[in-house]
Design goal:
heterodimer; A: 3 domains; 18 helices; B: 2 domains
C-alpha cells in the first residue's frame, strides 16, 4: 500500500530505534536514515533524538500509537489497515504490529465522532493485545496515495522542489482531513486552522514568494542544549535564479569540541566556521525556542488580539535576550559598545539588549486600531517592479479581513476580470473597484518585492551588519512610492513622509528601545 | 414631516442579522420600503458622524452608508449629500483625506460636503430661545434628512444616540456650551453643563427633524468609546434599529441594552418637550421583539477615579459633565498611547473639578480645567518648601560632637512649584491638553507622546489664538 522506499526507510528507523536501548553508546551507531517524507539523510540517532525531543512535547506524551488506514468511500468496514506501535518511550516508534483489519468495524459516519471511535478502539486493543493506546492516527486512502506520489518523486526532486511538494502534501491532507490524530495535538489544530484561514492561498506559493527574497546564504543554525546540540546547515548558492538550489544538512553537534556550553571558555566560533565552512553561525537555546512554539501552537486561530500581543512580546523578548538565549557570529555591530556610544552621541539609541519588548506590541496594535480601525478590510498589493524594466510589473492581491483588531481571514484575489480592471490603476481606483465586490476597503497597501527583500536582508540575513544606515535605507524606501504606497494616507505614514528620515528614526528608536543605557 | 409618509411615525424596526449588509435593506423594507421615505427627484442629506480621522467604528459603517445610498439612488433621488461638522474643530477635508472617502462616495453617486466652508455652503440664522444658531442652508433646503448613527458607548449618555448625532448638524461654535451660572443655582451640583448641552441638542434636533433615523449596531464598541482606546472592545450584536422618529428609535435602542426612559436625561427632556414618541405603547415594533434581544454590554466608567493608570493618581473634586467628558478622553488617551511614557514619568497626579483633594506629593501635577485651576490657587502643592541652612560651623560641630544639637531653627524657603501643568479651558480641548502635557514633560520623558504629538499635528490645526474660557 505504501511506497517501498518510504516503507524500507521507516522499517530501518524502527530497527534502529529498537536497538538503541540495547547499545551502551547509541551515538556511536553510525547509521544513516532519511527523515520520513523527505530526501534529507541524517544520522539515525539524531532522528531518534528528534522524535524523543519533539514528539512528547508537540504530539503526545503517552505511549503506544495506532495507525488506521481508512477508505474514502462508504463501505461496510472502511478500515484498510491497522498498525500498532508499542512504544517504550513516548514518540519512539520501535516495533510495528499489523493487526487484522476486521479487528474493528468502522463506518464512514463513525469518523464524525472520533472520541467515541478512539474509546472503542482503545478498549478492543486493550482486550485483545493487552496494550493501552494513547493516540490514533487516521489516514485516508487518498492520503496514502498522495504520500506515495510524493515519495516516488523524492529522488528526482531538488530540495526546493521537495519543500514545495511537501507543503502541497500537508495543505491538501489537512484541508481534506486526509490525515488526523486523535486526541488532536495543538500543533495539528494550529496548522489546520492556519491553513483554513489562508482561504485557499497555497503554502507552497507563500514559500516560493518568500524564498525568492533570500539570495545567497551559508549559515549554521545550532539548536543548543546541554544534552544534545543539533546543527542545521542551510546553504543557498545561486543568487540569480529565484528558486535556486537550497542545501539542508542536519547533524549532531559536538558541543564539547567547540566549547559551546563551557562556563570558563568562550565558544570557538572560528573553529565552527572553518569546520562547517559557513559564513554565519546562529546559536539558539533549544528550550526557550521550543517553549515559544508550544505556546504558539496553543493559540486559537484567528488569534485574539491580546494573545497576539503576548506572543509578539515573547518573540521580542527572545530577540532581546541576545547572549542569554541566542548568540551569533559574526557578532552584530549594534552589540559593539563603542559604536553604540558614538551613535548615542547623535541622539539615536540602538541597543539590541534594550529592545522594548513590553512596549512595542502595544504601540503597534494601538496605532493600527486607532488609524486603521478595529474592523477593517486591508488590501495588500504586492508588486515586483524589476529595476531594469519599468513596464514589467507583476501584481498579487491579498485581502486581510480584520475583526476587533486581529486578522480573521485572508483572501487571495485572482479573479482575472478584476485584475484586468485594476491593472495599472492608482490605488484609489483599485480600492473603489474592489470595495464593490469585497465591501468597504479601509486601506490599500502597496509593497514592492524589493522593499520586502531589503527588510528581510537587514533584519534576517545581514542582522550582524544592522546599523543606522541600513535602517535609514528602509525608511527611504518606505518614502519612495515605487516601493511603498498607502491609500488613504493615514497619519503615521504622512508623518514618516514629512519628517526627515533621521529625525523619524530618532523618534522611533526612543519608542522601540528602552533608555538608560550608559 | 413628510406628507406622503406611508408609515406611522411610531413604527420602529429592529432587525437582527449576522449578515451586516442585510440589516439596512431589510429594515427599510420592513418600514414600507425606501419609497416611503424618499421620492423621485428628492435632494437627500445623509448625516453621518465624522468624529476624528480614525478607523471603524469611530465614524460610520461605510458598508451601511453604501446600502442607504444605493436605496436612495433606486428611488431616483436627485442628489445624495453626505456631511457632518467634525468634533474638536477638525476639518472635514482632513478627515476625508485620511479616510479617503470623497472619491469612494462620489463613485457611489453621493457627494461629501465640506460644510465648514461657509462660502460654498452658506449658513442661515435661526433664532431658538433667544439664541442665534447658524445651520447650513443646504441642510435646510434638502428634501429629506437621514441620520445614520453608529452606536457605541459614550461617557455622558451611555451610548451615542441619534439625537447626539443630529447635534453636529451645526458648526462646532454653536455646539459649544458656554458656562452660564444662573443666580441661586449651583452650576456643578445641578450639572448645568449637561442640562445646557441636552437643551442645545434638542434645540438643534428640533430645527429639522429627520425623515429616517438608523441606529447602526451591526457592531458596537463597548468598554471605552466612542474612540478606540486600550479598554475598547468591539462586539457584533448584528442589530439595526430604525424609524422615522429619532426619540422613539433612541428609546428602543436604549431599551435593548436594558436602559429605560427614566435613566436617560436626554430622552426625559425630549419627552417634556414633546419632541417625539416616548410612550412605549405608542411605538409599534416591527421585526425582532425587544424582549427577545438580550444584549449585555460593558458601558464606559462613570467615575474618573475608576480609571486605573500606571503611576498616576487621579483626584477629582466636584466636576461637571463637560470636564468629565474631556478628562475621560484624555485619561483614556494616556492609557492607550502613553504606556512607555508612564513608566518614565514614574509619578504624576491628575487633579480636576472644583476643590480636588490635595495630591500626595508635589511632583508632576496636571491641573485640568478652569474649576481645578481656580480652586487650587492657594493650595499647598502650589509651593515647595525647602529647608536650608548654610551655617557651616554648626554643621561641622554637628559632625564632630556626637550629641551636639544645633539651637538654630533651619531656614525654610518657599518656592513656586513649577512641576504643575495647568490645562485651561471650560472644558479644556483634548488636543490642546495633549500638546500642553507634551510641552511640560519634553521629548526625553515621553517618547510615545512625542510621536503622537507629531501625528496629531499632521491633521489637527491648532487655533491661532488660545481659546479663553467662558465667563467665570
Amino acid at each position: 500500500m505504501i511506497n517501498d522506499s518510504f516503507k524500507e526507510n521507516w522499517l530501518k528507523i524502527l530497527r534502529f530505534n529498537s536497538n538503541v536501548p540495547l547499545v551502551e553508546n547509541p551515538k556511536e551507531l553510525k547509521e544513516l536514515v532519511r527523515i520520513p517524507f523527505t530526501p534529507i539523510e541524517i544520522e539515525a540517532f539524531l532522528l531518534y533524538h528528534l522524535f524523543d525531543l519533539l514528539y512528547p512535547r508537540f504530539v503526545n506524551d503517552q505511549q503506544n500509537i495506532l495507525d488506521m488506514i481508512v477508505s474514502d468511500f462508504d463501505l461496510d468496514n472502511i478500515v484498510f489497515g491497522l498498525y500498532l506501535y508499542e512504544t517504550t518511550k513516548p514518540g519512539i516508534h520501535s516495533a510495528v504490529k499489523k493487526l487484522p483489519k476486521d479487528t474493528i468495524v468502522v463506518k464512514k459516519e463513525d469518523l464524525d465522532n472520533r472520541e467515541e471511535l478512539f474509546n472503542t478502539l482503545q478498549a478492543i486493543i486493550l482486550k485483545e493485545q493487552g496494550i493501552k493506546i494513547s493516540c490514533m492516527k487516521i489516514i485516508r486512502k487518498r492520503g496514502i496515495d498522495l504520500i506515495n506520489s510524493h515519495c516516488q518523486k523524492l529522488n528526482k526532486l531538488t530540495t526546493y522542489e521537495f519543500v514545495i511538494s511537501i507543503l502541497n502534501l500537508i495543505q491538501i491532507s489537512l484541508e481534506n482531513d486526509l490525515f488526523s490524530i486523535h486526541p488532536e495535538p495543538n500543533f495539528l489544530r494550529f496548522y489546520k486552522n492556519c491553513i483554513a484561514s489562508l482561504n485557499g492561498i497555497s503554502l507552497s506559493k507563500i514559500f516560493a514568494y518568500f524564498g525568492s527574497f533570500f539570495t545567497v546564504f551559508n549559515t549554521l543554525l545550532i539548536l543548543n542544549s546541554r544534552r544534545l546540540p543539533i546543527a542545521l546547515k542551510l546553504i543557498k548558492k545561486n543568487e540569480k535564479s529565484s528558486n535556486s538550489e537550497i542545501d539542508i544538512k542536519l547533524t549532531l553537534f559536538d558541543g564539547e569540541k567547540y566549547k559551546l556550553n563551557s562556563k570558563s571558555h568562550e565558544t570557538d566560533f572560528k573553529l565552527i566556521q572553518s569546520d562547517f565552512k559557513v559564513d554565519k553561525i546562529v546559536i539558539l537555546n533549544q528550550n526557550p525556542f521550543l517553549l515559544f512554539f508550544s505556546e504558539l501552537f496553543e493559540t486559537e486561530i484567528p488569534a485574539d488580539k491580546e494573545k497576539l500581543k503576548l506572543l509578539f512580546q515573547k518573540a521580542l523578548y527572545g530577540i532581546r535576550s541576545y547572549d542569554l538565549n541566542w548568540n551569533m557570529f559574526p557578532k552584530p555591530n549594534i552589540n559593539n559598545f563603542v559604536l553604540r556610544f558614538l551613535i548615542r552621541l547623535f541622539g539615536i539609541n540602538l541597543n539590541l539588549k534594550k529592545l522594548s519588548h513590553w512596549a512595542i506590541p502595544d504601540f503597534l496594535f494601538d496605532l493600527g486600531a486607532t488609524y486603521i480601525g478595529l474592523n477593517a478590510n486591508l488590501l495588500l498589493v504586492l508588486t515586483d517592479k524589476s529595476k531594469n524594466s519599468s513596464k514589467h510589473t507583476s501584481t498579487e492581491l491579498i485581502l486581510f479581513r480584520i475583526e476587533n483588531g486581529s486578522i480573521t481571514k485572508l483572501e487571495y484575489i485572482n479573479n482575472p476580470e478584476l485584475l484586468i480592471k485594476i491593472k495599472l490603476k492608482p490605488l484609489e481606483s483599485v480600492r473603489i473597484v474592489l470595495s464593490e465586490k469585497f465591501g468597504f476597503i479601509s486601506t490599500v497597501l502597496l509593497v514592492d518585492k524589493h522593499l520586502i527583500k531589503t527588510i528581510l536582508n537587514t533584519f534576517l540575513i545581514n542582522f550582524h551588519r544592522i546599523s543606522i544606515f541600513s535602517l535609514l535605507k528602509i525608511i527611504k524606501l518606505l518614502k519612495n512610492p515605487r516601493y511603498f504606497q498607502l491609500y488613504p494616507e493615514i497619519p503615521p505614514y504622512t508623518l514618516l513622509k514629512k519628517k526627515r528620515s533621521i529625525c523619524f528614526l530618532k523618534d522611533l528608536m526612543s519608542i522601540v528601545i528602552d533608555k538608560h543605557d550608559f | 414631516m413628510n406628507e406622503n409618509s406611508k408609515i406611522n411615525s411610531t413604527e420602529v424596526a429592529i432587525i437582527k442579522s449576522t449578515i451586516s449588509n442585510k440589516l439596512i435593506t431589510t429594515g427599510i423594507e420592513k418600514l414600507g420600503g425606501i419609497s416611503a421615505f424618499i421620492e423621485k427627484g428628492d435632494q437627500v442629506f445623509i448625516k453621518i458622524d465624522l468624529r476624528a480621522p480614525y478607523g471603524f467604528p469611530v465614524n460610520v459603517n461605510f458598508d451601511s452608508l453604501r446600502d442607504i445610498i444605493s436605496l436612495c439612488k433606486i428611488t431616483g433621488a436627485k442628489q445624495i449629500l453626505i456631511g457632518d461638522f467634525p468634533s474638536n474643530g477638525m476639518k472635514t477635508q482632513s478627515i476625508a483625506n485620511i479616510l479617503g472617502i470623497q472619491s469612494y462616495l462620489e463613485n457611489l453617486g453621493a457627494e461629501l460636503l465640506f460644510l465648514e466652508d461657509s462660502n460654498i455652503y452658506p449658513l442661515t440664522d435661526l433664532e431658538i430661545k433667544d439664541k442665534i444658531i447658524k445651520i447650513p442652508e443646504i441642510i435646510l433646503e434638502s428634501d429629506k434628512l437621514i441620520i445614520l448613527n453608529q452606536v457605541s458607548v459614550d461617557p455622558l449618555f451611555k451610548i451615542t444616540l441619534s439625537l447626539l448625532n443630529s447635534y453636529s448638524l451645526v458648526p462646532n461654535k454653536y455646539q459649544r456650551i458656554e458656562k452660564l451660572v444662573r443666580s441661586g443655582k449651583d452650576y456643578l451640583l445641578l450639572d448645568q453643563y449637561k442640562q445646557d448641552l441636552i437643551s442645545n441638542i434638542l434645540d438643534i434636533y428640533s430645527i429639522k427633524k429627520p425623515d429616517l433615523v438608523i441606529n447602526d449596531m451591526s457592531y458596537f464598541l463597548e468598554g471605552a468609546g466612542p474612540f478606540v482606546y486600550r479598554d475598547s472592545n468591539l462586539i457584533s450584536p448584528g442589530l439595526s434599529i430604525m424609524g422615522r422618529d429619532a426619540v422613539a428609535v433612541d428609546l428602543i435602542t436604549l431599551k435593548l441594552i436594558d436602559i429605560d426612559l427614566l435613566s436617560s436625561d436626554i430622552l426625559l427632556e425630549a419627552k417634556n418637550r414633546k419632541l417625539g414618541v416616548t410612550d412605549m405603547s405608542n411605538i409599534t415594533i416591527i421585526g425582532e421583539s425587544v424582549d427577545n434581544i438580550n444584549l449585555k454590554v460593558n458601558f464606559s466608567i462613570y467615575r474618573l477615579d475608576d480609571i486605573n493608570i500606571k503611576n498616576t493618581t487621579i483626584k477629582a473634586g466636584r466636576i461637571c459633565s463637560g470636564c468629565f467628558k474631556e478628562a475621560y478622553h484624555l485619561l483614556n488617551f494616556i492609557i492607550t498611547h502613553m504606556p512607555k511614557d508612564l513608566k518614565y514619568i514614574k509619578k504624576q497626579h491628575f487633579l480636576m473639578g472644583e476643590n480636588p483633594p490635595e495630591p500626595e506629593s508635589s511632583d508632576h501635577i496636571i491641573v485640568f480645567g478652569e474649576c481645578a485651576i481656580n480652586s487650587t490657587k492657594d493650595r499647598k502643592f502650589r509651593k515647595i518648601r525647602s529647608s536650608f541652612d548654610r551655617n557651616y560651623i554648626e554643621s561641622v560641630k554637628g559632625k564632630i560632637k556626637k550629641d551636639y544639637k544645633s539651637q538654630k531653627i533651619p531656614k525654610v524657603k518657599e518656592k513656586v512649584n513649577k512641576s504643575i501643568i495647568e490645562i485651561p479651558g471650560c472644558p479644556p480641548n483634548l488636543y490642546e491638553s495633549i500638546i500642553s502635557i507634551h510641552k511640560y514633560y519634553g521629548k526625553s520623558l515621553t517618547p510615545n507622546l512625542t510621536f503622537y504629538n507629531n501625528l496629531i499635528k499632521t491633521y489637527y490645526e491648532q487655533p491661532s489664538k488660545p481659546k479663553k474660557s467662558a465667563s467665570d
